[in-house]
Amino acid sequence: EADIYQTPRYLVIGTGKKITLECSQTMGHDKMYWYQQDPGMELHLIHYSYGVNSTEKGDLSSESTVSRIRTEHFPLTLESARPSHTSQYLCASSESGLMNTEAFFGQGTRLTVV
Amino acid sequence: AQSVSQHNHHVILSEAASLELGCNYSYGGTVNLFWYVQYPGQHLQLLLKYFSGDPLVKGIKGFEAEFIKSKFSFNLRKPSVQWSDTAEYFCAVNVPGTGNQFYFGTGTSLTVIP
After folding, report:
1. Neighbours of B55 (CB within 10 A)
2. Which of A3, A10, A107, B103 has CA 20 to 30 A from A94's CA?
């Protein structure tokens, strides 16, 4: 059972609000990821981190930002939410230092911006 | 970025029918290959993985997948599906040693009718 947690599970928020999606893992993984998932579409990588104070943008451009101040915590922030941000956001982590490793996923946050 | 193609978007089967879901990827070098499953309301879980060795890999719940390097394919199979296999299935790939970014297909929605 993966030990990676996302809160909230569901969020409905008004346009223009600032929101932070939380993601924490207890596996000591250095690598963490944020994916955006829309129905019928592949998971798109929007941010990743190789460790503390390391953050990179993924292949899909996103207006969100991330931070990695602690190994176990990788929050995603939207400064001003818009309806186009409505989506499911998935956090994942994987072990570093290995050539071959799998990703572990949280349950996701389903965000609706009205 | 790598690309992963899943050709079956929606599959409907009766219980006890055999299942094969297609997955093709674009990278010509060494890859790690994965199948993830997402049951309704749950997080993405690893079904099986291929790193090296025997190209026929067995996963949980009776699933297996075959890596065919010449076809850039990693198809998922199960001889006899059950109603509880109803879920979304995602094929994923990463390239060893490149930061472990995971690239996902669009997913296949499987519905098993009792």
Report:
1. 13
2. A10
Residues A64-76 pLDDT 10s:
999 999 999 999 9
Strand B32-38 to B103-104 pairing = unpaired
- Residue-wise burial string across A88-99, b where 16 or more C-beta atoms lie within 10 A, e elsewhere: bbbbbbbbeeee
Between strands B87-94 and B32-38, the pairing is: antiparallel
H helices present in chain A, as ranges: none
Cα–Cα distance measured from residue A65 to residue A45, given in angstroms and rounded to the nearest whole number = 13
Adjacent-strand bridge partners of B112: B13
Q: Which of A24, A30, A102, A109 to mutate to test the interface with B (most CBs of B within 10 A)?
A: A102
Summarised one tens digit per residue, pLDDT across range B18-30 is: 999 999 999 878 8
* Cβ within 8 Å, pair A42-B106: yes
A23 touching B (Cβ < 8 Å): no
